[in-house]
Model the fold of this input.
Amino acid sequence: MTTTQTTDTKIRLDAVRLEYVKEEGRSRHLAVESISLDIRDKEFLVVVGPSGCGKSTLISAIAGFLKPTGGHITMDGREITRPGADRGVVFQEYALLPWKRVIDNVALGLKFKGVPKAERYATARRFLAITNLADAEQKFPHELSGGMKQRAAVARTLANAPEVMLMDEPFAAVDAQTRMTLQEELVRVWEQARLTVLFVTHSVEEAVFLGDRVVVLTPGPGRIKSIVDVSIPRARRNWQEMNQDPEFIRLRDEVLVQVRGQPVAA
Amino acid sequence: MTRLAPRLHDLALGTLPFVLILVAWFLLPHLLDYPSYMLPSLGTVIDRAIGSIEDGSLLENTLASLQRLAIGFIIGNGVAIPLGIAIALNRHVADTLRPVLTFLQSIAGIAWVPLAIIWFGIGQGAVVFVIANTIFFAGIYNTVVGVESIPNTLYRAVRSHGGKGIQIFTELILPGALVQIILGLRTSMAYGWRALVAGEMIAGTNGLGYMSIEAVQWYQTETVILGMILIGILWLILDRLLFVPLEQRTIVRWGLIQR
Done:
């Protein structure tokens, strides 16, 4: 059992403790107390929890932006020490470069790798088509709506062919209608790209809609409260069906109870 | 309505104060009694302008001033921008330089004229030194602020997509600081232009500032006024020709400032 899991594991968190020094004061903030978790290869894992549970800090640590103050984070058995193109991050605030056209933003990682212009534009166009942005390739980010910006950010990460895509509350800043569309699109895009995704959100509905597994964190400092398997087939993952799917409703309510911290009925 | 109409409207509004000044200037001698050397008529100034264009002195002085400004601008910003970036990126550089820069900032520009004259003598060297000095201090903090204002998320985005070392510099830091750097170029040239006029008046041997102060000896008030008008017009042209298009092509296009 243990050996099969090891070969399957993409990223392993082993008793990870995350503290950071708050900018205003000298005080240290404990964001994550101790988390051990295996992120499986090519799974869509969602971490859900209330604000302040350290879920964004967790993404930062896996991305290599900050070092754990305890425990180990490994990818394919190697310790993560710095950011790298193998772990592409999609940020809540999009983080597109304002001075680059959409196509150049999407081709950014390929430029860093030294891919020739024609080739990286061809790749970028393929991912712009997948994310429904073909018409926007010559625009600058400020000319895009919030939803389009986030599509561009997803296209940028996927075009760079990372092994893992880390998504830090990517849809939190867009309006509710757009969010639902983006969620459906992500399901579809992920089926084409098939890479390991770690998706962080505070929305229980979003977590159950997107995830293969949903990890519920306790309010800060974060620890794992429970892990819920979501086995709803990908084909059914659109809001039209999911809204009436008894399995979705049952899992959503189950996760919601976990997140809100009420005792689970025996 | 043609698309040109709003622009013509703006142009007309912008020209209005100038027209009013000219009308007042034209009417003043008819309303008040004062000796003409105190404020010569518009006609006299125009005659002076034509005269100095014909004898070539106006073009010579203008070119001398512009050339000095260009040299001072290149030297001043050529030092300020790299140093500003170094201060913003490296704490040790910042800790070392900030106190001395703050100290020197208060005596930037014209206060250096006496020492500049002793070091370089009256003429080109002294004036260029003062302009470059002024431009350096007017520009450097814009570069520092520009680099410091780049959001942390953009660094993270670049690094998590494989950006390293020099790539971070060319793809993120330089363009990211450009809004402030362009602002610094513009401000520093405006300050440099003023320092140039003052510097030429005290330590110059030609140029528009020198032309104006020289004319005082002969009570050629029309030359003084001509100098002042030219200084203003040349700045308007420089600003429109250099910085407005530069901003349009970069920071306005990128949506970093609204126009």
Q: What stands out?
A: Chain A is about 35% helix and 25% strand. Confidence is low (pLDDT under 50) at residues 1-6 of chain A. Strands of chain A lie at 9-21, 28-40, 44-48, 70-75, 78-79, 87-90, 164-168, 196-201, 213-217, 222-229. Chain A has two domains: 2-86+163-260, 95-161.
